[in-house]
Amino acid sequence: MTKxxxxxxxxxxxxxxxxxxxxxxxxxxxxLYGAIDAVRNPGSIVSSNTSSIPLAALIKGxxxxxxxxxxxxxxxxxxxxxRLLELVSGPNxxxxxxxxxxxxxxxxxxxxIVVCNDTPKLIGNRIGTYxxxxxxxxxxxxxxxxxxxxxxxxxxxxxxxxxxxxxxxLFGVDLMLTTLRSLQNAPANTDAIHEYDPESLLISRMxxxxxxxxxxxxxxxxxxxxxxTPEIADLTTGDYRPMRQIAPESHDASKGGARALMEHxxxxxxxxxxxxxxxxASLVPEVADSPDAVDDAMRIGCxxxxxxFELVDRLGGSRLVEHPKAHGLAVPPYLxxxxxxxxxxxxxxxxxxxxxxxxxxxxxxxxxxVMTIADLKLATKPVVDYGCAALWDLDDGVVCLEFxxxxxxxxxxxxxxxxxxxxxxxxxxxxLVIGSDSPIYSAGADLRVFLERIEKGGADALGEFIDxxxxxxxxxxxxxxxxxxxxxxxxxxxxxxxxxxxxxxQAHAELSIGLVETRIGVVPGWGGCKExxxxxxxxxxxTMGLGASAIATFNLIAPAKVSRSAFEAKSLGFLRSTDxxxxxxxxxxxxxxxxxxxxxxxxxxxxxxxxxxxxxxGASAMRNxxxxxxxxxxxxxxxxxxxxxxxxxxxxxxxxxxxxxxxEDDVLALERQAFIALFETPATVERVKHMLATGKSLRN
Length: 700
Prior knowledge:
Elements: H1 2-7, H2 18-24, H3 26-39, E1 46-48, H4 55-58, H5 64-67, E2 70-75, E3 84-89, H6 95-107, E4 112-115, H7 124-142, H8 146-153, H9 164-171, H10 173-184, H11 201-208, E5 221-223, E6 230-233, E7 240-242, H12 249-254, H13 258-263, H14 270-282, H15 291-302, H16 308-315, H17 317-326, H18 333-341, E8 345-348, E9 351-355, E10 361-363, H19 373-379, E11 384-385, E12 389-393, E13 398-403, H20 412-425, E14 431-435, H21 447-456, H22 458-478, E15 483-486, E16 489-492, H23 494-500, E17 504-508, E18 511-514, H24 528-537, E19 543-545, H25 547-557, H26 566-572, E20 580-582, H27 588-600, E21 610-612, H28 616-631, H29 637-651, E22 662-663, H30 664-679, H31 682-694
Parallel strand pairs: 1-2, 3-4, 13-14, 14-15, 15-17, 16-18, 17-20, 19-21
Antiparallel strand pairs: 2-3, 5-6, 6-7, 8-9, 9-10, 11-12, 12-13, 21-22
Helix pairs in contact: 7-10, 7-14, 7-15, 14-16, 17-18, 20-22, 21-22, 22-30, 24-25, 25-28, 25-29, 28-29, 29-30
């Protein structure tokens, strides 16, 4: 690994409008590489980020030693967030060079590596731009409203929630046009990309009027001059009008189901999806040797829920063959092969297998140290299926509890499932991991439960739900075996509080974690306040003076700070210095399992701590911070009410005596009291309802 860092992987990328320039100036790249080769250390690795210029053209005429240590590493933008790395090697690339880069990109950069053949635009950009081209041109030709086009072509098929034309707004019509032209001009490329004109009259007008992308302020979508009303472009005239809710007859009749949309005689997305899926099938083995490589590229790089071959299996291959054949259209032999013999993917003996273009079947092999719930589901059944959660055996005496609610939110049944799982683990397993494959660890408690309880049963009903959360999270903390949280994505509110009660955390690097309850007008109610007080002091199991800790905790919770990474989560105190960080998402569960095993030998549950809270002196300091925030315009009227309630919890209340330590239950009682009192205010209820309706915070 040190060798790579010292050598410096050098990228000569081609992005945006540079594509045409690079295509016309391959010799400029060759001169650059020649200059690099003259000064680089033997054994160093050089790579290009291009997806437009063939590797063979880049190294033509360069020494064989350079060709042996050169490859294409095409990162997707934004490189930190996008996990896909398309890797292309040449016939002379040394095997150890490929292995070194793959291992580095996997373990140190967290990438999912897809091996591609040396073809124009590789996989993601080639299929992705064709998909957008077909959808854009068919929508314009058919003349539906933009809302209708996005409804039928997007989400029902697992495409990005932006919708196809919303995605073009993000991508940029000028960049898309340049990319499409580079594909159409690629040598020896005679495929279906030539069937469409990439520059329709509407697209030409948008470019001429500088309606290029979201940064320019308008393409298919924009806001009105007063920034109050979302507007949308008419696909016939190009002029803007207010956006409205439109659902085509085909969408309503099919209830948004993808297969039913394909079979509906009306405007159902059939033409677009038939063409795109057939196009993908026509590119194997040209762009990659297996369908899984294509599926991975489109899921991870382009945001599809299912890869094109997975989508064919879901829609039914025979249906995708019958309709084009009936209309005299050519069907790729690979698609016909799958339609006649079954699906592209089958499961056998707990392993996923895929159909190859030559008719043979290949097993999908995972890398060492890769573990997912999806693979476990192929190979086995859960130890216990609770409906809203499932317990999976990870071997070696470790089990994993997977949450299965919407956004993994906590409901009463999920709390019951957690308690039942703890009891099950105690019957003979060594340790528990709490995690899943989901892009969201947990969005916290289900706000609808809080709202329904306060509206129907008042404070007593709400208190019962809070008490159940307290009991459950304390059980997680004090069971006689180690519990390791394995979060990825976001862990907000109750999701954060669950992790704070675990013995250890193994987090994915891209973790956004925080106690965000103040955004909805309450304070953390399931132990978040007392756990952060303990962490800020850093002395578990002992009597602690927490005056400074209370102020630090207030500065974290009151503004609802969240981390932008697992590393920042450590600096904020949500993760301990001993907690682990996994760079590659696919390795998270395996790393969490190893951490759980490392804690299991000789494990002893923690002793309940005593907390000496500051009382009036600490409250006064926190109150000054709140007043300053209000004067600066950072705290609204209700923020001040919530802030006062939080101060009362963190200081131990007006009667707290630092010489008389409080128990965890004492602090939990303060959290409970503050939570219920705030939920009984109209301003908090208004915030909760606004969040449920819009997904955004209300500043009242």
